[in-house]
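A quick aside before the break. I want you to see a complete sequence-to-structure record at least once, exactly as it would be stored in a machine-readable document. Don't worry about memorizing anything.
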Amino acid sequence: MNTRRQAGGQWGRGWLLILPLLLALAELGRSQAPPGRHLTIADGLTNNSVQCLAQDRQGFLWLGTQDGLSRYDGSSFRTFRADARRVGSLPSNFVRALAPDPRRGGLWVGTGTGLSYYDPRTEHFGPIMADSGQTYFVNALLLDARGCVWLGTEDGLWCYDPSRRRLRRFRPTAPGGAASAGRHAAVRALARDAAGTLWAGTGEGQLCRFDSVAQALRPEPRYLPPGSAPVSALASAPGGGLWVGTEGGALCYLPPAGPPRAWWRPWPGRPAVRGLWTDAQGTTWVGTAAELVSWAAGQCFTVRPARRLAGEVLALAPDRAGQLWVGSNAGVRCLDVRPSAFGRLPAGPAPGPVWAVAATPGALWLGTEQQGLLALNPRTGAVTERLRHQSDNPASLASDFVRCVLPDAAGGLWVGTQAQGLDYRPAGAVGFRHLRHAAARPGSLADDFVRCLYRDPLDGALWVGTEGGLCRLANAGRGEFTTYRREAGRPGGLPNNFVRCVLRDRAGRLWVGTGGGGLCRLDDPVAGRFTTFRASARDARSLPSNFVRALALDAAGRLWVGTEGGGLCRLDDAGAGRFTTFGEAQGFPNDVVYGLLPDSTTRTLWASTNRGLARLNPATGQLTTFDTRDGLPQDEYNAGAASAGPGGRLYFGGPEGVVGFRAAALLPPAPPPVLLTGLRRLNQPVALPDTAVGQRRLLRLSPRDYVFTLEFAALDLRRADRAPLLYQLEGFDPGWLAAGPRREATYTNLDPGRYTFRVRAMGAPAGAVLQVLVAPPWYRTGWFRALALGALALAGWLAYRLRVRQLLALEQVRHRIARDLHDDMGSTLSSISILSALARRHQLSQSPAQVTDLLNQIGDSSRRMLDAMDDIVWTINPAHDGLADVTARMRALASELLEVQGVALVFTADPAVAALRLPMESRREFFLFYKEALNNLAKYAHCHQATVNLTYTAGHLHLLVADDGVGFDPATAPLGGGHGLPNLRTRAAALRGHFTLATAPGQGTTVRLRVPL
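That is the input. The structure line, written in tokens, reads:
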């Protein structure tokens, strides 16, 4: 113990000597911090206290917090939380450690209640160590080369072998050799150095090495810190060493051999070290409870977080894109720690807004808003010459606000100012010559507000764009300008006097971009005749905006136009004025294009906008955007401030200086992998029962899923939200569709069938593929169609049979009517004819008695014939199918027969009977049955009273005909003179009814009929 205390004191005194220098360097570096992205719960993070971070094999970034686990795909978050009622949920919301499994593709999660494994195939968490009487509070996780998981817990070091499902515990040993317990046994940090040695930092403040032979943790004798602050962070160094951070704010580097090199405590208040990481450049990043500190090549500087991230740094983790993710108790911040390919010029203090850039082999000229004209050394960025306006020197620069600069081949320098005309300094001269607008001199400059300068490659003339028109200077010595202006009432002239850019194409045509007048072409320089192309709301292929800011030619000689508000466009047809537009809808960063520069080394076209730079490959259409997240010093630029320099370097000026870079050094990024991340039905998330939608090859949808949404993501944490994605549902979509910022595709009311959903990044040959099978509704299935076809065939057959039956019944009716007419009418008419002949014969023989008798017979036969004819007509009339008509006829017949005989009639009918209907045949048989019974009553009963009753009960029609007459014996005296009783039985059988007869001599007669309906 004395040795440790003395060693710690010596290291502490050594660091006290250089501590002031380190603090000074730290303060100097505070302004060098890259801002990075800041994500909080407002962006979808489940909780702002980010305890741990890790990137899995697929590319997702996982963030463990105090309230759940978040998965980030570069543009949006997905949250996983504990739910005791759901199988496979997160075991605890307090996530302390994460470790991706590169073999299985899943994620090991250490929580306050143990260890679990996240399976990306099922999106379920399987508990490995759970609370079973003892709490396994996991502080750190580490995977070894065999796939075993090492866990640092409050109860020591554990090792879990997934293949054997075996869990072992190793406790740190105390200096005396005994196993530690309690806080002394707690393992707070884990790391594996370049040699493969496992290191563990304990709660007692020990640094232990795992002895693989003895299978035990051994304290490292070289680690002798002052005090016993718990070891809170460990990180492997590229050279094989180990960085150690403690809760007491100490930082130690332990080399592979020899004594520790440094103890470092420059932080005020000695805040705890919570995270350590060394990047590819050898810079060590230290996250403390106060700030983020980097240590590189013996120097340190402090990265102070923004105000929203002013809390404690809790975790550090890199991603595969070269970014450092910093978790804190105020969210997570992403920093790009790679050396940036973009540089800011000049090297010294920023000169303010730069409006003009001109690159030459020997100098880079910058036209500023307040500092005049600056000449820089292109290699160092140092200012070599300053040209300012001097009120006491007429040969000085006319104005400190310089809008355009153009060096000439002879070494001279042309300078256009904001409002003081055009200046020219010949080669070797000290002062400037001023060319100003003079209203009284026709050959003077058109206007003192100069906006662009262009050297004509055809004849060497200088073109000057001003706020008062376009000027051409053929001879600098004479200073005489030819001016083209907009003239009211003159067609074919310059459409607008605000000239912003000029360019001659390979065909020799001179193009002029104006501020509000569109794009025009000078067709006749002598007559001043222009052809103008403007934006048109009726033509989607017209110029997208009338405010033209920049012009450029690509490697193929095509003209590109940068506009304000319309994005970038390409001239496809100079005769018809047809353009192809690249704007924000096509993935362009912004619709305001300030500058255009072709790069001959990569055959690409660069554009400066209000939201960074854009690189377009005209041959392939591949678009790449760059902003501050890619190391760009600034996102906003100024109009006309663009120039290509020697060696393929490009320069763009903006409000904070100039950005310079070599375009060939910025390789096109590889298309990011694209995954399906979610499924929604009727806008509600759907969890598939057996696997995740991103792992599926076939998705079956029921007819109820008539509205479904597939979510997807580009797994690129650097530029995922800027990667244009395309999707297509083969069999439905006519072609590839742009996904836009929402990263989802919604489909409604798809026809049943098989479809293929594809989504990919722009420029990528392939991406995610999912087969979608939409099941038909039950009424569109094969079995239902077969049943329906069978039912239709059966119905047709039944209809046919019914029709045949109806035709047969009609035929029977016709035959019966013919038979009745023949039998009744024919026999009756024959008898009338015979009786008539006999009557004439008796009349001639003077036998009046016989004639009278024959005439009476003829009358009786005629009445019977009329009654039979009336019955036939009444029967076949469909208007009498209702029992109401039958009842009325029955009542009338009874009254006619019985009243003349003085028989009292009691006729009753149930009101329910009137609503019934009988078909013609049944109605005929029923009425004839009644008529037969009534005729028998009238002829043979000799009664005083007759009763007729009609009722309807239980689906049956009941008829009762009764009298109080003489009655008869049914066994000896047939009713109706021998034919009455058989006729009643025959007609009852035809009605499928039940007939009963009750009679006896002297007791009257009762006839009953029950007919089913």
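Two observations worth writing down. Helices lie at 2-28, 782-844, 848-876, 883-899, 920-941, 980-990. DSSP finds six helices and 70 strands in the chain. We'll return to this after the break.
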